[in-house]
Amino acid sequence: MSNQYQGTIKKLQSQLNNEVHYSLPIDSTLVELNQLINKKVKFTFLGDIYCIKCNQKIKKTFAQGYCFPCFRDAPETSECILRPELCRAHEGESRDMEWSNKHCLTNQHVYMSFTGNLKIGVTRSTQIPTRWIDQGAIKAIILCTTPNRYLAGLIEVHLKQFYSDRTHWIKMLSGKFEEPDFEQCYLEAKKYLNDGFSKYITENKWVDINYPIQSIPNKIKSFSFDKESSYEDILVGIKGQYLLFKNNRVINIRKHTGYSLKIQY
């Protein structure tokens, strides 16, 4: 193994081309991952974890990378991140109004994606298609656009009567699912929105997302650097925020945001 990098990692970065192009941020370096598929890679946890907000050294993370005080107080971990309908920035209430002006009081999209099951979600304009890729969606489409996060949250709550808002990660990674008639699904979703939310509907087309996967583990088993400080295997694919390895193991990189690692290949 002639190449190695070490430092604090963040979640995988992605670009949507014919297939998703992935890179792993390690401190100020971006390690290109697509070129490592079908190669042996070794990850070693160096024992240190740092908060991605304040850079304080910590023993465990909250909400994928934060220390407890930042988890409690930072605008990035506000209740409305998981439940947009709880956002009150439009009423002038926020942990940080400057942050909310950029993240909550801008155009928000209610979308439908297919990750093995149809699901709905909310994200702002700058997070498309990143949000879909992070979830491992193979197709996605924007249903509505609203001027703030609160309104998008109301629409999401309405659509939860008919669709899930969660990704089943094992099903997503396995690829063992039947694809529905996507155009029919889109028309059906718009029908559900006609009652009260029709003015927010936007006409769009499904976006196809292809991932760099050579093979899928037969029996998926996840591992964590909290329990295994070192892992060496052949990288066979990347989907969502997961690395897939030849020996049926997968790891969620986003879950380890803030961890200090060494990567060798």
Task: Write a short abstract of this structure.
The chain is an alpha+beta fold and 265 residues long. The chain has helices spanning 68-73, 79-82, 97-103, 130-135, 149-159, 169-174, 182-193, and strands at residues 4-8, 13-16, 20-26, 29-32, 40-50, 57-58, 108-114, 118-124, 139-146, 207-208, 221-222, 230-239, 242-245, 249-252, 259-264.
Q: Globular, elongated, flat, extended or rod-shaped: what is the shape?
A: globular
Strand composition percent = 25-35%
Alpha plus pi helix count: 7
List SSEs in N-to-C order: EEEEEEHHHEEHEHHHEEEEEE
What descriptors fit this protein?
265 residues, alpha+beta, 8-stranded mixed sheet, 4-stranded antiparallel sheet, 20% helix, 31% strand
How would you describe this structure to a colleague?
The structure is a single chain. With 265 residues, the protein is an alpha+beta fold. The protein contains 7 helices and 15 strands. The strands form 3 sheets. Strands 1, 5, 6, 11, 12, 13, 14 and 15 form an 8-stranded mixed sheet that branches. Strands 8-7-9-10 form a 4-stranded antiparallel sheet. A hairpin with a 6-residue loop joins strand 5 (40-50) and strand 6 (57-58). The chain starts with a strand and ends with a strand.
Task: Give the topology.
Blueprint: E1 4-8, E2 13-16, E3 20-26, E4 29-32, E5 40-50, E6 57-58, H1 68-73, H2 79-82, H3 97-103, E7 108-114, E8 118-124, H4 130-135, E9 139-146, H5 149-159, H6 169-174, H7 182-193, E10 207-208, E11 221-222, E12 230-239, E13 242-245, E14 249-252, E15 259-264
